[in-house]
């Protein structure tokens, strides 16, 4: 877990990461910087902070001044950083949901669709025709997901 941060000093911005307090990191950088750090933005504490930093460095590579310092406006960098963090947060929530659902053996048609990437229509049709292994819980079809995946693997080979 750690933070992605953007610091502005004079006409340059530093895109960096830290697993500690951002204000402490700012103080450390200020000590070696001849310009006053005038603005600071940081993400919330996130898992994929190193990957996000790499994306931001790559995005602004044509504006690189030296090391992690870039000649792009603070607002432009911060807006991009916020966007990348939000996208990764959405992906992480989805991944966690898929992992939670995957721990179960039987799944609803909607869950099976989300896990497999197949359409709800395809799965529902397979259940109705009896081709997809499932049990019935009242009106609800519960797909035997491991058997379903084995069936799909057999179809591809």
Which key terms come to mind for this protein?
8 strands, 3-stranded antiparallel beta sheet, elongated, alpha+beta
Verbal overview:
The chain has 157 residues and is an alpha+beta fold. It has two domains: 3-93; 104-156. 52% of the residues lie in helices and 23% in strands. The chain has six helices and eight strands. A hairpin with a 2-residue loop joins strand 1 (3-9) and strand 2. Helix 2 packs across helix 3. The longest helix is centred in the middle third of the chain and has 29 residues, at 74-102. It is elongated.
Strand order of the largest sheet: 3-1-2-5-4
Q: For the report, how would you describe the main beta sheet?
A: 5 strands, antiparallel
Order of helices and strands: EEHEHEEHEHHEEH
Query: What are the segments in which pLDDT stays under 50 over at least 5 consecutive residues?
Result: none
Structural category is alpha+beta
- Total strand segments: 8
Mean pLDDT: 90
Oligomeric grouping of the chains: single chain
- The helix count comes to 6
- What percentage of the residues does DSSP assign to strands (E)? 15-25%
Give the end-to-end Cα distance, rounded to a whole number of Å. Answer: 41 Å
Rg from alpha-carbon coordinates? 24 Å
The number of distinct structural domains comes to: 2
> What is the helix content?
40-55%
The best one-word shape is: elongated
What topology emerges from the helices and strands here?
Layout: E1 3-9, E2 12-18, H1 22-32, E3 37-42, H2 49-59, E4 64-66, E5 69-70, H3 74-102, E6 106-107, H4 109-116, H5 120-129, E7 134-137, E8 140-144, H6 145-156
Antiparallel strand pairs: 1-2, 1-3, 2-5, 4-5, 6-8, 7-8
Helix pairs in contact: 2-3
């Amino acid at each position: 877990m750690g933070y992605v941060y953007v610091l502005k000093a004079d006409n340059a911005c530093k895109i960096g990461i830290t697993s500690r307090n951002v204000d402490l990191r700012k103080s450390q950088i200020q000590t070696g910087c001849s310009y006053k750090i005038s603005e600071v933005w940081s993400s919330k504490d996130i898992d994929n902070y190193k990957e996000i930093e790499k994306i931001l460095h790559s995005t602004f590579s044509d504006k690189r001044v030296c090391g992690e310092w870039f000649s792009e406006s603070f607002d432009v960098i911060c807006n991009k950083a916020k966007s990348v963090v939000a996208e990764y947060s959405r992906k992480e929530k989805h991944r966690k949901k898929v992992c939670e659902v995957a721990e179960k053996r039987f799944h609803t048609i909607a869950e099976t669709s989300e896990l497999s990437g197949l359409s709800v229509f395809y799965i529902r049709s397979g259940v109705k025709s009896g081709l997809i292994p499932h049990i019935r819980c009242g009106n609800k079809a519960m797909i035997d997901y491991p058997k379903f995946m084995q069936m799909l693997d057999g179809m591809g080979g």
